[in-house]
Amino acid sequence: MSGVRTNRDRLVTQILVGEVWPALADRHGYRVDADGTPFLLPGMGGVTLGAHAGDPATGYAADHLEPGLSVRAAGEGANMALQFLSCVGNEVTVRSGPAAGKTGRVLGQHAYVLVDMAEDDLALVAPGDRVSIRAYGQGLRFLDHPTVVAKNLDPGFLDSLPIRTLDDGRLEVEVAARVPAAAVGAGAGMVSEFANTDLMGAYAGQGDDLSLGLESLRLGDLVLLEDQDHRYGRGYRPGYLTVGVICTGHCRLFGHGPGPSTILSGPAEAFHVKGAS
C-alpha cells in the first residue's frame, strides 16, 4: 500500500471511447538523427508488439517507440478529453474485433494514449478496433501533502507504487533514475496532462558524447526530473521536482528520447527521494 491519504472517495469515473490509430507517414519517409544519418523506422501508432512494462526502454530499432496500443479519438475535442482524462493505470477494454473483451492498462500519454496488454492479446488487435477507458484519477489530491500536485494517476495504481508519507511530513518516493534538467527535451512548455516529456541523453549506439546515463531505463520505471515544475505545465524551476512513469521508448530524433508521463510535482522540500543517485 502507498500509505498516502487521498480524496479518492470523492473522484468520479468517466467511460471514454477511442480507437487504435494506424501508424502514419508521408511520402518523404526519412528523418535525420543527431549525427545527420537518415533513418526510416517504426515507432508511433498502430499496435506495437514486443515491448511492455518492465522491458528496456532503449536499444530498439525504432523511433518514438509507443509500446502496445496507440489510442486516440476521431474528433478533436473527444481526443483532447481522452488525453486529459486518461490516467496511468486506468483499465482499458477492447470493444470490437477478435480481441473484444480483452483488457489492458494505460501506460501513459504521448501523441496517443498508450495501452499495455498481454502479448497474445495485443496480437489480436488491429488499427480501427475500438476501446473504452475507465478514466479515473484526475482531481486526485494528497491530503497530507498540499504542495504536491498529483495528476495522470489512477489511485489504484498509486497503491502499488513505492510512495508513502513519512513521520516528518514529507512524501517518500523511490525512483529508478534521477534525471538532470539538461536531459529534458521535447515536451517542455506543454501542459502536463498531454503527451509526455522526452528525455535526451539515451541515444544507445549513437555515441558516448550524447549519453547522460539513461540507457538502462525500463518502460514503467518511476523517474525523478530535477528542477522541473509540472504542476501547471512543464518548465524549468530550480528547487522543484517532478516524478513520472516511463511510457515511451527509443528515439533517434535529436532532442527526443524515452519519456515519462507526469504523476507528481512540487517543491523539493516536500519530497524524500530514494533510489538511484
Can you characterise this structure?
- The chain is mostly beta strands and 277 residues long.
- It has 2 domains: 8-135, Thrombin, subunit H, CATH 2.40.10; 149-275, tm1086 (SG structure) fold.
- It has helices at 76-85, 119-122, 155-158, and strands at residues 14-20, 31-32, 38-39, 47-48, 68-72, 91-94, 103-109, 113-116, 130-135, 149-150, 163-165, 171-175, 177-179, 222-229, 235-248, 259-267, 271-275.
- The strands form 4 sheets. A 6-stranded antiparallel beta barrel has the order 1-5-8-7-6-9.
- A hairpin with a 5-residue loop joins strand 14 (222-229) and strand 15.
- The radius of gyration is 18 Å and the shape is globular.
- Residues 30-158, 161-272 form the DUF4438 domain.
- This is DUF4438 domain-containing protein.
How are helices and strands ordered from N to C?
EEEEEHEEEHEEHEEEEEEE
| Poorly predicted segments | none
Q: Helicity range of the residues? A: under 10%
Instruction: Count every beta strand, where a strand is a DSSP E run of 2 or more residues.
Output: 17
CATH topology of the largest domain: Thrombin, subunit H
Strand order of the largest sheet: 1-5-8-7-6-9
